[in-house]
Write a structure and sequence with these properties.
alpha+beta, Jelly Rolls, 7-stranded mixed beta sheet, globular, 210 residues, 5 helices, single chain
């Protein structure tokens, strides 16, 4: 029997590839890989203070299919802080205290950014999840090998890609190709995001220090 979430995510990926020629290649990879995603056995679910404070309102005010997908996963995901290897660095500690990540499609052998938690689905080809970045949080410049797409569910933030900055709110799609330096800074409110890595799902982001 088809999985409702994977079916909806695959339909969305194909529609995104048709909507934006820039995304046609990445969305083909995502939609194709979703046909081979398998369910996982879930352990205990975990949360974080930033999630408890902001997630429900962020989900309920979300827009578009990404918001619908997030609502489908509302009670099936476990949240954790990213970048445990950077703990003790002041800017990263500030980020980690008000930033949370939950995998929807993870990997059996790698938790990518997570310190704990599990994903309801597994794949060796792609990864996907939700990000909740609290108000006034700076996600420093970083790079990774994975091709990455973000969909803004709710909230507004300033985004860096390469040397350029721009502001994106609900309904926006943000594409980062392999090795592109990028960063995100929220203002007075949180931002909730759906994302997918369509290549190199086991890669590890590296913070860029100047």
């Amino acid at each position: 029997m088809p999985d409702p979430f994977l079916t909806a995510f695959g339909d969305f990926a194909r529609a995104e590839g048709q909507r934006d020629p820039t995304l046609s290649g990445p969305m083909f990879l995502l939609a194709d890989a979703l046909t081979r995603v398998v369910p996982a056995e879930m352990g205990p679910l975990a949360s974080l203070p930033v999630v408890d404070k902001h997630l429900e309102a962020s989900r309920q005010t979300g827009v578009g299919v990404p918001a619908d997908l997030a609502l489908q996963m509302a009670d099936r995901t476990s949240w954790a802080s990213p970048y445990p290897d950077y703990a003790g660095e002041p800017d990263m500690d500030a980020m980690r205290s008000a930033y949370a990540y939950t995998p929807i499609i993870g990997q059996a052998e790698s938790a990518i950014l997570l310190t704990a938690g599990s994903a309801p689905y597994l794949s060796d080809e792609v990864s996907a999840g939700l990000v909740l970045q609290g108000p006034g949080v700076v996600y420093p410049p970083h790079v990774h090998k994975a091709v990455e797409i973000y969909w803004v569910i709710s909230g507004t933030a300033d985004w860096q890609r390469g040397d350029e900055w721009s502001t994106h709110g609900p309904g926006a799609t943000i594409f980062h190709d392999t090795g592109v330096r990028h960063a995100t800074t929220t203002g007075d409110g949180p931002q909730l995001l759906l994302f997918a890595w369509v290549t190199d799902p086991g890669g590890v982001p590296v913070i860029v220090r100047f």
